[in-house]
Amino acid sequence: MKLNALTAGELLERLDKKDLSPSEIISSLNRQIQETDSKVKAYVRLSDSLEHQTPSIKHQAPTLEGIPISIKDNICTEGYNTECCSRILAGFKPPYDATVIKKLKEAGASISEKKTNMDEFAFGSSTENSCFYPTHNPWNLECVPGGSSGGSAASVASDEAIWALGSDTGGSIRQPASFCGVVGLKPTYGRVSRYGLIAFASSLDQIGPLTKDTRDAALLTNIISGYDPCDSTSADIKVPDFTQALVNDVKGIKIGIPKEYFIEGLDSEIKVALEEAINKLKELGAVFKEVSLPNTKYAVPVYYIIATAEASSNLARFDAVQYGCRSTIANGLIDMYKKSRGEGFGPEAKRRILLGTFALSHGYYDAYYLRSLKVRTLIKEDFDQVLKDLDCIITPTSPTAAFKIGEKVEDPLKMYLSDIYTISANLAGIPAISLPCGFTRDNLPVGLQILAKPFDEEMIFRVAYTYEQNTPWHKMKPKL
Amino acid sequence: MEIKKETVEYVANLARIELNQKELEKLSGQLEDILDFIDALKKVDIKDIPPTSHILPMNNVLREDTPRPSLSHQAVLKNAPCAKGNFFGVPKVIE
Amino acid sequence: MEYEPVIGLEVHLHLKTKTKAFCGCSTEFGNTPNTQVCPVCLGFPGSLPVFNKTALDYAIKVALALHCQVEEYTRFDRKNYFYPDLPKNYQISQYDLPLSKNGYVDISVENNPKRIGIIRVHIEEDAGKLIHEKDLSLVDFNRSGIPLLEIVSYPDINSAQEAYDYLTLLKSILEYLEVSDCDMEKGSLRCDANISLRPQGAKELGIKTELKNMNSFKAVKDALVYEVERQSALLKEGQALVQETRLWDEKGQQTISMRTKEGAQDYRYFPDPDLPPFIISQEKIEEIQRALPELPQEKAQRFMKTYGLTQYDAKILVSSKNNADYAEDCLRGFSDKDKKSVANWLIGPLAAITSASNLNISELQVPAKNFIELVELVEKKQVISSLTGKSVLQEMAKTKKTASQIIEEKNLAQISDPQSLEKEIRDVIKENAKSVDDFKAGKANALMFLVGQAMKKTKGRANPKVVQELLKRRLSDA
What we know:
The structure holds 3 protein chains of 3 kinds. By secondary structure, chain A is α/β, with parallel strands linked by helices. Chain A has 2 domains: about 5-255 and about 395-475, Alpha-Beta Complex (Amidase signature (AS) enzymes); about 295-375, no CATH class. Chain A contains 14 helices and 12 strands. Chain A is globular, with a radius of gyration of 21 Å. The two termini of chain A are about 15 Å apart. Chain B is of the alpha+beta class. Chain B has a domain at about 5-45: Histone, subunit A. Chain B contains 3 helices and 3 strands; from the N terminus they run ααβαββ. Chain B has a two-stranded antiparallel ribbon. In chain B, helix 1 (about 5-15) packs across helix 2 (about 20-40). The longest helix of chain B has 18 residues, at about 20-40. In chain C, strand 13 (about 210-215), helix 3 (about 215-235) and strand 14 (about 245-250) form a beta-alpha-beta unit. Chain C folds into 3 domains: about 5-285, no CATH class; about 295-410, no CATH class; about 420-475, Orthogonal Bundle (Arc Repressor Mutant, subunit A). In chain C, helix 7 (about 320-335) packs across helix 10 (about 370-380), helix 10 runs antiparallel to helix 11 and helix 15 (about 445-455) packs across helix 16 (about 465-475). The longest helix of chain C is centred in the middle third of the chain and has 20 residues, at about 215-235. In chain C, the strands form 4 sheets. In chain C, strands 3-7-8-11-1-12-13-14-15 form a 9-stranded mixed beta sheet. By secondary structure, chain C is of the alpha+beta class. Chain C is elongated. At the A-B interface, helix 8, helix 9, helix 10, helix 11 and helix 12 of A face helix 1, helix 2 and strand 3 of B. Strand 1 (about 60-65) of chain B pairs parallel with strand 2 (about 50) of chain C, so a sheet runs across the interface.
């Protein structure tokens, strides 16, 4: 097997035996990128450089030994363009590294100048809202890879990356992981520092791994987790060694199946794949129970108020004063603001900023924003209640497999509904993973979502690892 | 709920985003659809329910009053679309 | 008809922390533009705020000193508006859950106490600074993110003088707390005013004008005086006022209308998701309360009680903490029970020197013990006259020497021995025959003239009381 097709865990074993050097991994990745990225388009600004920055910081524990990682375009990398795939940030080179990048460099990871494609400012579920170009699903180039971390997911699925970082505000790691047949984790809110992640919705955003298997997800989560004094919302909680949770055993584990996730709108092929996965886990000794999360139906509306309200404020800073792209035809200050932002933001960004501004504006705050914060409380309480007697919850990651490029672009509402199963975890702040659990007749991957109590990523890793050890799905590769 | 073009114009002005007529019309319709969907929330009984603006039960996150190095002058202005001397430049503000 | 002004003041105060509210950049004043900035206070994408512990402590301190109720649960909100000095285009501020509410200070109006209510004291971050050029505005973000307190008074103030007194007292309290430089020139204290007029005795408030751009307390007072006149003239003519913001024009000594804004602002306040809330415990409040210094008004009361000072003297002595501490050392150290003379020396000669040299007492290098010695030499031991005492004090400030050193070196000690004055007395009588006659004819004034002449002859060193006695005796003998 080619080096670039291996997992980081496998590469580390070989690096340990000294029969491999990091530069061989990088050349093998570059070959793959040259071969397939013109089809997949997982990366942006690819022509800039294929060089990797070998870690300059002398790392204490040489855990990653120079293994490269791909980074979503909304995570700040010092001196390297970080543009959120938006025209308004064209040319922006942050003067600092995000905390996760610092941690990766300290661990000996190799970071390159090329970043992965995404929906502009993470606004989307298909990576079609990038100002560059859409990314294509490696399993079917006519389909979307999901989004917003579509570039990260596609780069891993196509072996153009060993592993990648994405960000998840309403499913932006898990839904593309599901569409591309890879593993994607949204950690508990506060587990991973948001410092240096260009904010979409501050109360929902989390950075997380996209990997080829659960072991890599645990390895990468080990590195990026932990309290950060630069992020007031980062939790000062001990980080366990997640690889210790990789135990092939689910005997007696209590798993909930929320009935609200298996109703109309769920594609029958996905339903079948899920049922098979549940049966598999039953066989392995897990105990299942049907549960109810009654406020599930409000998750999408609540999300689209809270997330857009926060976004409208977070994105106000893109005014072309300290950085960013200033309109050249503006006349006066206010016109400069309006033209720079009018030219710089794409349609979905405009839609969300306007929706969020509306929800906070005079006369609508109570009816929309405040009401949403209250319903968010109810959604969180649903999970608290149900998880009291359970170890985890299993649901589909997305109601459908990857859809066609262009299929939902003109219907924002339909697009929003593709996050229906992933949004609740962000609203409740709980951890959730998506991992491959089969394929549709059209050979598109299907994802299984596991959710657990806050800061109990270990339970997620244990169940995911056991399932993975007893199924073949994560080993499948797309033909490119 | 009906979203008039004036409402979109008002909100776009608050958000400092210029929209052309086509965008304005399209957005009025789309925002109306989205808000109709969101209006499902009106059915929820939220009496006595406290709002959740921070999901973690955290408070009193503070740092010591200890100085840290600032950015170099070069790093500060490197990304600026308009700089003059040590300053950022903007079109003249009329007070 | 007579109109009554109704005034509310909004004070913005820089807290004297080492670092900014939400990042580790220095708060030092006057450095090269954009050198005290980082991703956080520049609002760079991805940066996040973490609040300064000392800023919170200082804010609680101020709230308690102003008798505010410190809230158990408080948090930051975002105030959203676009302006080039605001790097994120929102200001981290407080809206519906401010740090503290419902306080007061007591000023005195014609010797009667008057309570000025304080609506709220809340924390926010400062913006950057704009410099306007011909066709460009320049932005310096050094000030961006410095912690600010907003202190909002109730409209309990009814004259420009009351506004001035309120500000003076507020500043004095804030200086006692040592939480701010309170320097209006450097912008570490700023004040806006809301003023409306209503017919004397009416309950309803008139139309409000917001006044900005006052750069000193005097400017606040002048602007308010101007506004009272402008508004009452309009009202007397039967003209309607408009709600507006006016800028004080220091040069022209007038207020000028700012272009009226297009409708009300829609700031879209909402809880800042980047900053978890604060729960301020009763213990914390009590701890800070216990550590509060004695404040000027309490100190004045104590000075009156302990040292028998008049209210007037006490008020002057406590106006700044520095002065008050020095005054207290002097009052306590002075060996006489009657402290009036010390107070007089502090308020008179010493204050004259500090204000002339533009130094504060601690910079003057006259230790309290030296000052006490001087006052005792003049007032108790009568080693020198008070006139000589004043020049000795000036010499002390210049040379750092003690009074007795200076008296000895310059041979300034008062001559009280009659024998040593014999010759001068004789000479004065000889040289001023007319005055001698006048005195004998019953003109009491003539004696004072003769005493003066004797003083002149001794270069001021003669003890005037002894001279007077000697002259009287000699002239009635003759």
